[in-house]
Amino acid sequence: MTASDEAEDGHEPILRIAVAGFGSMGRNHVRNLAARHDVRIVAVADPEESARLEAAHQIADVATFADPHQMLASIAMDAIVVAIPTTLHSGVAIDAIERHVAVLVEKPIAPTVAEGRRMVEAAKANDVLLQVGHIERFNPAVLELTRRLRGGALSRIFSVRTIRGGPTPERIQDVGVGVDLATHDVDIICHLLENQPIRIYAEATRHVHTAHEDLVYGLLTFPGGVLGQIDVNWLTPEKQRRIVVLGEEGMFDVDYLTQALHFTRGREELAPTYLDGYAPMIRGERRALPVAPAEPLRRELEAFVTAVRAGGPAAVTGEDGVRAIALATMLLRSAVEHRPIEIGAGDLG
Length: 349
Prior knowledge:
By secondary structure, the protein is of the alpha/beta class. The chain has helices at about 25-35, 50-60, 70-75, 90-100, 115-125, 140-150, 175-180, 180-195, 295-310, 320-335; strands spanning about 15-20, 40-45, 65, 80, 100-105, 130-135, 155-165, 200-205, 215-220, 225-235, 235-245, 250-255, 260-265, 270-275, 280, 285-290, 340.
């Protein structure tokens, strides 16, 4: 790190960070970065003049540019957040990497596996930090679930099931739910299982989106017969974000939105609840587990800043990002070809 300004506490230098893209996610990055005392937002790039004017109004002494490449060529910085449309990720990220600027790129890492791999190769060749913004890994409920699973809370995991739905977002026009949403869930499933699938199958439909699929159901088979199931769509009238892990001792379920984590343990003798002579419900013992609430993006940026200062490693690597886009691409291929896809060595990275 080459930042020259001293932090307010006098102990560590201020980290100079630029932000490419001042849309919805870019604004959230700026809000969280501006709240930190150990970083300074030195520049913002966005093609919209109104966005640049807003950034200049919000951030003291910030330089603004229409073109992120011009920003990289003009401003000294230690790191950059790339929050522009997915199709533009690799060009800006590689430009930054070749200038030895650490990169946090929003997910998905790129629209194609080939572009993602070029980004990873550039980061390795230049010994530059590349982190991918898979924000759900930093949700406090997911962090607590991960901690418990790593500690052996389930001696065997049978399946991991995810639901991610909501209305069609107007801001996303360049990709469908496979790339935009499924990348979250295939990443989380692989992260929780600490493994990669050996087979994948999916069905996809397009109901209201004019250019891309807006509903995907996917099934991932892992070594040992563990199953992953994903349901992603832009058709649900309310936002839904859930994950359920079923195993030997019971079931964990997470609500990403409320950051709630529950565990349901089956009783040795499950007593049914009777209604008019039949038993519609058989209940296990369900209890809420403690989770300290926090904004996931703030935690993600904290991990990025820490990694930049330490020289790595990234909390979510470029390889993780490539694996997610590779799996999302395979889901879509499976849906088009109406057949399972066997995953070979080297297909995911």
